[in-house]
């Protein structure tokens, strides 16, 4: 039973790859794999930030809106101050949203669910006001799309950046004092407080990291699209949660962790692509994400019960 809770997701992922590989000759080609990884990169970065927050038992429902706003602001700022200015604007925007979320949750005592949902709606209103709610395009510097469309050999820059963020986040969570404190606060807040850990500060840091990574994800998406779109990443919230919960049912019994989230992102990415290349209707592609989320939460909950026993 423990083996199932730890490795069941990985076995299912491998079986899925085999099935789609048999049904479609183009599925496991190098070009298709590269395209899947590139398409999943921005959502992968958002999912890592969300995982950090989930580790502490909190939620961040604003990541899709934050990424969208960061992408819009990056494109608008880049028109006047170049790609460097656009990058700084996106990251600062994400950090600012993270600080606001963290302060509302830790200082005002509002639940993370309500706080981040409300902040997300505020960003939605701002998106309607910024540039009249119209996508930002034209007069963008030539290097604005370099990050989103450039490659290092056969590997897209977006994929390199995604995995660099993943490695950094993994090292932070698994190899540093900060990471151990986050796991401690998420596992038992009372025991962590009695051990001298400032839970509020740790939770605030988690929200800031989530916001920064959402801002980076928005920048990646805007660079890939070549425009700042006012709805670009709004739909990324459900897949990010699905990836995180799939990760919680991978290798560890019900614990959120970066490595598992990467597996979740890859699983969703290849699932969506496999359904497309095998000719499945788009409606089922969208529905499959919801089905996978429910299954992942069920497996994760079951795994937690097994671990508790």
TrEMBL record:
<feature type="transmembrane region" description="Helical">
    <location>
        <begin position="36"/>
        <end position="57"/>
    </location>
</feature>
<keyword id="KW-1003">Cell membrane</keyword>
<feature type="transmembrane region" description="Helical">
    <location>
        <begin position="6"/>
        <end position="24"/>
    </location>
</feature>
<dbReference type="GO" id="GO:0005886">
    <property type="term" value="C:plasma membrane"/>
</dbReference>
<keyword id="KW-0813">Transport</keyword>
<keyword id="KW-0812">Transmembrane</keyword>
<feature type="transmembrane region" description="Helical">
    <location>
        <begin position="77"/>
        <end position="100"/>
    </location>
</feature>
<keyword id="KW-0997">Cell inner membrane</keyword>
<feature type="transmembrane region" description="Helical">
    <location>
        <begin position="204"/>
        <end position="227"/>
    </location>
</feature>
<keyword id="KW-0472">Membrane</keyword>
<dbReference type="GO" id="GO:0022857">
    <property type="term" value="F:transmembrane transporter activity"/>
</dbReference>
<keyword id="KW-1133">Transmembrane helix</keyword>
<feature type="transmembrane region" description="Helical">
    <location>
        <begin position="258"/>
        <end position="277"/>
    </location>
</feature>
<keyword id="KW-0762">Sugar transport</keyword>
<feature type="transmembrane region" description="Helical">
    <location>
        <begin position="112"/>
        <end position="132"/>
    </location>
</feature>
<feature type="transmembrane region" description="Helical">
    <location>
        <begin position="233"/>
        <end position="251"/>
    </location>
</feature>
<feature type="transmembrane region" description="Helical">
    <location>
        <begin position="283"/>
        <end position="303"/>
    </location>
</feature>
<dbReference type="InterPro" id="IPR001851">
    <property type="entry name" value="ABC_transp_permease"/>
</dbReference>
<protein>
    <submittedName>
        <fullName>Sugar transporter permease</fullName>
    </submittedName>
</protein>
<dbReference type="Pfam" id="PF02653">
    <property type="entry name" value="BPD_transp_2"/>
</dbReference>
<feature type="transmembrane region" description="Helical">
    <location>
        <begin position="152"/>
        <end position="173"/>
    </location>
</feature>
């Amino acid at each position: 039973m423990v083996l199932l809770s730890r490795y069941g997701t990985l076995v299912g992922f491998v079986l899925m790859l085999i099935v789609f590989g048999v049904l479609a000759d183009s599925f496991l080609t190098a070009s298709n794999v590269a395209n899947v990884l590139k398409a999943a990169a921005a959502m992968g970065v958002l999912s890592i930030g969300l995982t950090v927050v989930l580790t502490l038992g909190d939620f961040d429902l604003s990541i899709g809106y934050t990424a969208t706003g960061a992408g819009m602001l990056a494109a608008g700022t880049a028109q006047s101050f170049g790609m460097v200015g656009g990058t700084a604007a996106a990251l600062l925007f994400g950090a600012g949203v993270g600080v606001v979320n963290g302060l509302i949750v830790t200082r005002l005592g509002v639940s993370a669910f309500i706080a981040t949902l409300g902040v997300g709606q505020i960003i939605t209103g701002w998106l309607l006001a910024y540039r009249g709610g119209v996508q930002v395009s034209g007069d963008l510097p030539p290097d604005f799309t370099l990050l989103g469309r450039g490659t290092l050999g056969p590997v897209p820059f977006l994929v390199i950046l995604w995995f660099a963020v993943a490695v950094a986040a993994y090292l932070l969570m698994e190899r540093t004092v900060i990471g151990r404190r986050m796991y401690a606060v998420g596992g038992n807040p009372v025991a962590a407080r009695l051990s001298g850990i400032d839970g509020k500060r740790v939770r605030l840091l988690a929200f800031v990291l989530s916001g920064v990574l959402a801002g980076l994800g928005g920048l990646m998406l805007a660079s890939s699209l070549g425009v700042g779109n006012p709805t670009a990443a709004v739909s990324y919230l459900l897949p990010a949660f699905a990836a995180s919960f799939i990760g919680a049912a991978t290798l560890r019994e019900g614990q959120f962790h970066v490595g598992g989230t990467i597996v979740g992102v890859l699983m969703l990415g290849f699932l969506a692509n496999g359904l497309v290349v095998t000719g499945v209707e788009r409606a089922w592609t969208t529905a499959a994400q919801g089905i996978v989320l429910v299954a992942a939460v069920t497996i994760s909950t079951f795994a937690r019960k097994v671990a508790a026993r």
